[in-house]
């Protein structure tokens, strides 16, 4: 073993080390060039079909090259890297073409767009090429298309630890650099502090340091192997805890029912995460299938292998309910793809768990087969084959056409911000609608198309014409009536963050306190939502007769149950403030008493 490590170090050192550092430096310089182009809105930042592929390739391909050096023959490396380049270009160009998540980012005063790959593309590309690179490296090491499971195990875990510790090395390096900058600042020397504020320094240093760390971890396989062994042993002893918790959860379902699970609206993601944790922990105990494992871990691993299937089945049922109720969306398509992969693992692991004489040996075959399945699923998701945006838009439009959702409840914003080019085409189709709801569909489609990307995360302004404001209010004191102008006002023009939900939704309910707080005898209305007292607002009519928000009560006051009870009973009076406010240059400075909200609420009798 020691002789092999010396030979490996000699093989991947010297010229290979210099090449790796050069690759990291060139990667950093090119990434800084793209960053500067985005910052200055210069070429190629505003050319999506050039910027997105360049950025995607520069983020991933150099890492594959650094890892391949010294392990793949020049011909093998060339074939693999050219294949990876072709796949990256295809994925990036499709990401731009579909336009689902690679939105233009407004980055300068002229509002000129610059482009970047979608976060989904970057994340899943990293997953795709981690698996693919491990498969290629293992195959090259064994000289076979399908390597032995032991080789896959060694290569994949080595690569994972290399990436993890390389990222840690970069973080530690910059921590030390910032420490040095702080030390120099103590003696009034700012050069290092100013240097660390410049992206032309930071980006190349990050990439070069990452390549350096990849090399150091590569030439010390014994260290990597020791870290891997320690990590797997520690993780494997978490397995019994996870088995007990998951078993307890599954045993409670017959008594609690599934209703509470569905009401969370994120049950599928939690169940998928649980299945992934069990998979990782089972493999931590199994390792390469040749490790000596204590009896509690063997029992725990076999039990966990059985538990994965019911977890995945509950997740599939949860997703199925959402799809039946609300149709497909991009997120649900991705969740379905994850469940497909998870079900492959679950069935295979269940089969392996019942092979009592082999200590889960069939897991090796299951893991290899499912790795190729993951690659196929990812390629399908990020190409037109199974584009989540296309499937989601088609599903939502079909639900609208079949009357499964009425026009007034249709999510036009989904088409605009998550449907990409398919959503834009659907909105154009809606603008040409005919039939009883044609006017509404045309108006809403045109309105949502006019929104810019900055408004994606803003709450939509909802029409309130069909909402009876009076029906949503419980008016206090008992017998009081809301001002007629307040009830008649059209609230759709007011921003949603300025008004409680009871003014816009049939499901929103509020306590409405009719008060006279000013010396002019005019009425004000204090609205306190039943579900979120923190959205309490005080409304008053202006000179033009329009009701607007004039004040917001302190949350600590309005959230106090005793305060609301007293207000409902009319047990209050008007008092002057204990300390007058200051007027500083037209700005009011208020003084609050120093008691805590809990102390103030507890004083109420």
Automatic annotation (TrEMBL):
Superkingdom of origin organism: Bacteria
Tagged with keyword Transmembrane helix: yes
UniProtKB keywords: Membrane, Transmembrane, Transmembrane helix
Protein name, UniProt field: DUF4153 domain-containing protein
Membrane-spanning ranges: 17-35, 47-66, 78-97, 117-138, 159-187, 199-217, 229-255, 267-287, 299-321, 333-352, 364-386
